[in-house]
Each structure stands twice: as structure tokens, then as C-alpha cells.
Amino acid sequence: MTDYLTTTEATRLVELEIVIERGLQTFIEVGSALMEIRNSRLYRQTHPTFEEYCHERWDLRRSRTYQLMDAAEVVENLKSSTIVELSSGPLPLPLNEAQARPLARLGLDLQRQVWQKAVETAPQGRITARHIETVVREFESAQAEPDTFTCPRCGHRAVQLNEGVICLNDACQSSWATRDEFEAEVGIGYKDETELLRTRLKTDLIKLLNHLSPEQLKELAAWLVEAQERLAAVVN
């Protein structure tokens, strides 16, 4: 037997849920504010590093700080991407940090593609963090496959996904049901292991750079210059 709410209770429930929804959505504002403070070095008058500022001013550990910034960056990236119309209407944005967090592990070009699939395949239309995590892992597994390709239609990277091949370019999204179909169109074999390793290293490096503070980027740049000089000395 359903325990129905009274009119007063139902009204109060709506009011409380609005409060909760508003609170869950503040992660975008918080994360964006933190990114601006970091990128503009607005902490420099009182703290030597961004991480110390976050810890002493807001009691935020480094991992939590970057979780908030990553989640906000995901939403901003989805906002700026090409608008996709679903059969049910425009593609929605993540409503809370839990929905955005799994997408932060992906490159910017993949986030829209994975988010769209998560929305389209959500059981009964409920876009839960668990479902998003499942879809993200599917794409991560596809990227971890030893076979990588170049899309013949746009020139971007494509990977094997289940039995077929899919282009990772958000604007292209070409797909082939089987690898045979892909190879018939592209007319080439697989890339060698060296190029695959180069692609993976490039992706990992971009993710790393996105998490470094300005001070850390300067230190890395100095280290790279020194490493290049040492390598040149060895070669010569």
C-alpha cells in the first residue's frame, strides 16, 4: 500500500529537493573559481603555492581540490562542445559532481562521446554515477586494446570497441561494425607498436599537464630543457 504524502508534505519535499539540487550543482561554481585562482595565481600574495592556499584557506586537500576542478572542467567542456539533439531533446549536462567525476579521467575529445552514450543507454532514463562509470570503463578498455587506427574520414584516432571500430573524434563519430569493414575502407593495416606507444604517452602527458600548477609547469619546462641539452651532448 502506497503511503501518500499530504499536500503540505509534498510541497515541503519539493522545496527540500530544490535545496539539495542547488547544493549539488555548486561544484561547477566552486571548481571554476578554484581554476581561475590557480591559473591567475590570485593566491600569490598570501601563499607560495596554490595547494597551500587551498589547504590553509579552505581545508581542501590536493586530491579534493583537483576533483572539484576536474568535474567543473568536464561540464564546461560539454557546454562548449557541439550541441547534440537526442530523440528526447537536447543532451543534458551532469547535474552533480558524482556524474561528472568519472568523465574527468578521459580526454576532452572523448568526454562528449562517452557522456552522450551514458545518457542514451541509461536504464529507465536514470543517469546514475554507477552507470556513467560503467560506460567510461568500456571506453577505457577500448583504448587499452593493442589495436589502434586512423579514421579515414577525419584523420583522428580510432580504436576497436567490442567487435567493431569507432572514431574517437567527437565531431566525426564514424563507426564500423567489424574490423574487416574498417580495413576494407581504410585499406591499411594496424599501426606499429612504436606509434601506439607514442599516442598513449601523448594522452597521458596531456592529462598530467592539466593537473600541474604554474610553478610545477615551470619546473617541468626547465627540466625538459636540461634533459634536451644532456641528450644533445650524448648524441654529439
Keywords:
single chain, four-stranded antiparallel beta sheet, flat, 236 residues, alpha+beta, two-stranded antiparallel sheet, 9 helices
Describe this structure in words.
This protein is α+β, with helices and mostly antiparallel strands. The protein has a domain at about 145-190. It contains nine helices and six strands. The strands form two sheets. It has a four-stranded antiparallel sheet with strand order 3-4-5-6. A two-stranded antiparallel ribbon has the order 1-2. Helix 1 (about 5-40) packs across helix 3 (about 60-80).
Helix content: 55-70%
Count of individual helical segments: 9
Between the first and last Cα atoms, what is the distance in angstroms?
A: 84 Å
Please, what is the average pLDDT?
A: 80
What's the gyration radius in Å?
Answer: 22 Å
Element-level helix/strand string: HHHEEHHHEEEEHHH
Q: Going across the major beta sheet, what is the strand order?
A: 3-4-5-6
Largest sheet: 4 strands, antiparallel
Overall SS class:
alpha+beta
**β-strand amount:** 5-15%
Would you report the number of β strands?
A: 6
Residue stretches low in confidence (pLDDT < 50, at least 5 long) are 188-192
Shape: flat
Write the layout of secondary structure elements.
Elements: H1 7-39, H2 50-58, H3 62-80, E1 85-86, E2 89-90, H4 97-100, H5 108-120, H6 129-144, E3 148-150, E4 157-161, E5 164-167, E6 175-176, H7 179-186, H8 193-210, H9 214-235
Antiparallel strand pairs: 1-2, 3-4, 4-5, 5-6
Summarize the structure.
By secondary structure, the protein is an alpha+beta fold. Helix content is 60%, strand content 8%.
